[in-house]
Specification:
Blueprint: E1 3-7, H1 13-25, E2 29-33, E3 45-53, E4 56-57, H2 59-67, E5 72-79, H3 86-96, E6 104-112, H4 117-127, H5 141-150, H6 156-177
Parallel strand pairs: 1-2, 1-3, 3-5, 5-6
Antiparallel strand pairs: 3-4
Helix pairs in contact: 1-6
Length: 182
């Protein structure tokens, strides 16, 4: 099975997870930055990774996701929030929803990642430090603590989880290709 991993990374989180996924899909796996715009047509599986920006794929990854047609695709993402949250679930689904209906989604994965410190400073300037119903993006102590926790991710367990998910996708596709699971 020939696989392609394409990632968009701002702080290195998504690159790190993409490299772990490529390892799980090896030996016949190529990995590229999204800026390289690799041709996906000769691959059995196309894996696209992005960092979450405003609840969806960042612009570069979004453009690549929308370009994929008639392929088996898996999607992964990194974000500053906890991966078990509704925000994380929606952020991953929003990226998947960008895919053309001619594609078959083979799997998905999301994990927490460190947040760009520059973003935190921009948020402080824009929203201040006092949280309210109207100002839920404010940078209060609670948000700062979430950012501190996020700064340790992706960790070894996150990478192991990503590898496990994509090893299962690979195994399932190989079973189907060999006709043993039809």
């Amino acid at each position: 099975m020939k696989s392609l991993v394409v990632y968009s990374s701002l702080t290195g989180n998504t690159k790190m997870v993409g490299e772990a996924i490529a390892e799980a899909l090896s030996p016949n796996c190529d990995i590229f930055k999204v800026e390289d715009n690799p041709d996906f047509t000769d691959y059995d599986l196309v894996v696209v990774g992005y960092w979450v920006d405003k609840g969806t794929a960042d612009a570069k990854a979004a453009a690549y996701l929308k370009s994929i047609k008639n392929s088996k695709v898996a999607v992964f993402a990194t974000l500053g929030a906890e991966p078990e949250t509704e925000h994380a679930r929606k952020s991953l689904q929003n990226g998947i929803d960008m895919l053309d209906s001619s594609n078959e989604v083979m799997g998905k994965f999301i994990c927490q990642g460190k947040i760009d410190p520059k973003l935190l400073e921009v948020m402080k300037k824009m929203f201040g430090t006092k949280v309210s119903k109207e100002n839920f993006h404010a940078v209060d102590e609670k948000r700062l603590e979430r950012h501190r926790r996020a700064s340790t991710h992706p960790d070894a367990q996150d990478l192991a989880n990503a590898k496990a998910v994509f090893a299962q996708i690979k195994a399932a596709m190989e079973l189907n290709k060999n006709g043993r699971n039809e």
